[in-house]
Fold these 2 entries.
Entry 1:
Amino acid sequence: MCGIIGYTGNLDAKEVLLKGLSQLEYRGYDSAGIALEDGKGDVSLYKQVGQVANLKEVCQNAGIPLSHCGIGHTRWATHGGVTEQNAHPHQAGKVTLIHNGIIENYHELTDTYHLQGQLVSETDTEVAAQVIDHFYDGDPLKAIHSALEVLKGSFAFCILFADIPERIYCVRNVSPLVAAMSEQGAFVASDLTALISYSSSYFIVPEYHIMVMEKDHITLLDEQNQPVKPEMLEVNWDVESAQKGGYPFYMLKEIHEQPEAIRKTVLPRIKDGLPDFEQEQIPDSLFRNCQNIAIVACGTAMYAGMVGKALMEPMLRIPVSVNIASEFRYEQPLADEKTLVIVISQSGETIDTLAALRLAKNLGAPVLSVVNVKGSTIARESDYVLYTHAGPEIAVASTKAYAVQLASMYLIACRMSFVRGRYTVQEGKAFIENLLSCVPAIEKILEQTDEIEKAAHHIKAASDTYFIGRGLDYAYSLEGALKLKEISYIHAEAYAAGELKHGTIALIEENTPVVAFATQSHVFQKTISNIREVRARGAYVILITKESAEIPEGICDIHFTVDAKNDQFTGLPTVVILQLLAYYTSLSKGLDVDKPRNLAKSVTVE
Ligand code: M6R
């Protein structure tokens, strides 16, 4: 949700900002803008609607004088349409500012500070700029503190004051900001991807602390304006892992990175053949003492939770619920100290997931989070963290992050079963062997993509598609449908196969694509019957089964198989087929696979 970057130092600020915005573009790409300060306090703005490439073109041809200090923003619109006026940076008096988040009381502030008639955009951000300028009398810290008392909502701000050259002021609440200092200057950004080419150590700007960036140092001040030492962290990604590496799109690269990501996530947690979380300091008592599990997440992460539930309930025989974070946080959830709350998030910054986590903690529940981004807010606020090791995921459509979330569900399910006496050592070891065998099973899929591409060509012409399965297959179908709709804009609905005839089957007509999953032996025949029902109504059926399955003649138009000995482990290879199906469908429609319309990578607003 909006990418922001700020820089002051000895490099060409325009180049640093434009490069950073390209790296942050996955966070939002409705419009982009930069503000450059000329070293004497004069600030010039450059903004463009659309992708960062448009802004780059304008900047390249604008004969912009060299500047060493500036701020940049790539927008995911919340308040106000996609226009140049609404693009950031915004200016009010001496203040130039960029913002990620939402100022909830901006209507009220507009009235209080009589801003009607002065605003040139429809954004909440411009109101924030006006409010800070209102309080500004030459003392930036005082102005920011006064503004913080009246601004409500989430924000990460980078601010230039016209009469204070070469300095950037930053402050945040909820919305993320990371900062780094190198010989080249001081850098701030929404996330690490824009910083890793400049520094291998960084820190997270603490909430409500004011950070003052100067070209040779950064000062961090607490709420009482006392200097505090930032808590430095080491980057665990390399620059290359955040680049395309020869692939046409990040999504394809990330799909291919899944075997490695799974290995990196699973192998360090295996000791004597069993999952072991000693290094993470996750105690067995956490797993032994809980009476139920509540999984909380959004989007793909939530669908990884659906697989977790379908795995864990039969293994553990305790209730496992999967909760949409934006519902959980407002609907008086049933959670207490006996509930193990498992929060899943790639970014570790999703606002609804974070709010749900805070609520769960208030209810007394211990929280274990499964997070990809090191040091993210969700990771820091959880009682325990199991980091996934997918590396940076840039494509908006989540792929490798989902794979490692699934791998983590397997690890947790296995450790819990063992700790609770439901698995013997032998059973636990066999489970982990099966989990590791998913890696070659995925590699096998990645070697045979031609058929998937063919299926995508059939799907691309459709207006509606259906994904059906039972049990674990139903959980996979949810993710498959989400992937297809988000990057191909084709309506895709996941349905429990047995439920179809209670209404939705009315929508099946000649040639409607139905992706059917039948990897679960105990309901195999039932699913086959459901496939017959849609086939009888003309559906074009793409079927996924285990390699060993014997399928009836003529049951489908295209058949994909996954190599899994055990039904519990069909998910990882199956989902890779679904990811590729979505990828090739989007590609064949000529869409921007990595930057689907209306979406942003991390959703840091409600
Ligand atoms: O960063 P998170 O895992 O918390 O993000 C959750 C969802 O926003 C995310 O999975 C989203 O659904 C993806 N675009 C799906 O591909």
Entry 2:
Amino acid sequence: MLVLGIETTCDETAAAVVRLQPGGAGEILSNEVMSQIAEHAAYGGVVPEIAARAHIEVIDRLVQRALEHAGVKLADLDGVAAAAGPGLIGGVIVGLTTAKALALASRKPFIAVNHLEAHALTARLTDELAFPYLLLLVSGGHTQLVAIKGVGDYLRLGSTVDDAVGEAFDKVAKMLGLPYPGGPQVEKVAAEGNATRFDLPRPMLGRAKPDFSLSGLKTAVRLEAQRIAALTPTDVADLCASFQAAVVDTIIDRSRAGLRLFRETVGAPNAMVVAGGVAANGAIRRALMRFCGESGLRLVLPPPQLCTDNGAMIAWAGLERLSLGLTDDMTFAARPRWPLDANAEAAHNGKA
Ligand code: KG4
Ligand code: ZN
């Protein structure tokens, strides 16, 4: 079974063709990505209108390239999938409309994929992982711990009450004068810094519910930077190192709480899976390896190009849904917000 997957929810335009083999294994035949980082860099973040326009300009070419590199024609496909949200609505509409048009013209099933679900299921493509497992999703837009019990069966254990982890990295980088996107820069500079110089807060530490909070930590970095005023490169390095150490402690403590809640409510997970751009961070990866080693838990870290936004994960989620007979019709509208676990979202909003 062959599916084309299209991703346009943020600042990456991506298209990929993935094959589902009879035994259940997946094979990536092509995986094309075009990043818009250069177009947004001058603004220090993603500008929705620029993103939507940039998606329109490259999407046709990118889809063509994904088909060519996979050595397949539209007629060979068994379905066309697109991320229908959550994300920036202008961009989502571009990918969704393209996928619908291709499906309609080639008379193939259309599959609307939840972008978060695609991140969640990637470990089944890379490692043929069986359900259930614990997912830590840490990106620029999302920070969640989720029990992945089956296709479409997700239990959100915890999430951030304010900033996403990647967002906190980006904001700290910006306030310290480092270029966008900030995560990789903060990591690089932190390697030269003293992680114990600043005693920064670890919000939520010790709480039983595996939620995250990053904004207090971010503010603490700002206050320290303002106190010092003219920052030397050493100050910047020490602030980055101290911030990253606080994030590492927070992620491990929250993962421990998430694992405990998983074991209480779902049972024994087959693994812990980490996804999202922040999973590229070496200090975070090493800490998670230690944590999983101590907890007797298998750790699955998909390769960085499959942790960040890509088309293969959309195609794979499309394949998982298609093989269960789950397809969508042309009335499916873009969803700027689309929680993986609607119950958790309703409870959360009720409280707020
Ligand atoms: O998953 P992703 O590519 O895009 C979405 O947000 O969906 O994640 C991008 C985020 C950015 O906030 C970026 O700063 C962060 O991941 N990031 C990192 C690192 N590489 C990327 N954060 C910390 N350390 C890194 N090495
Ligand atoms: Zn993503």
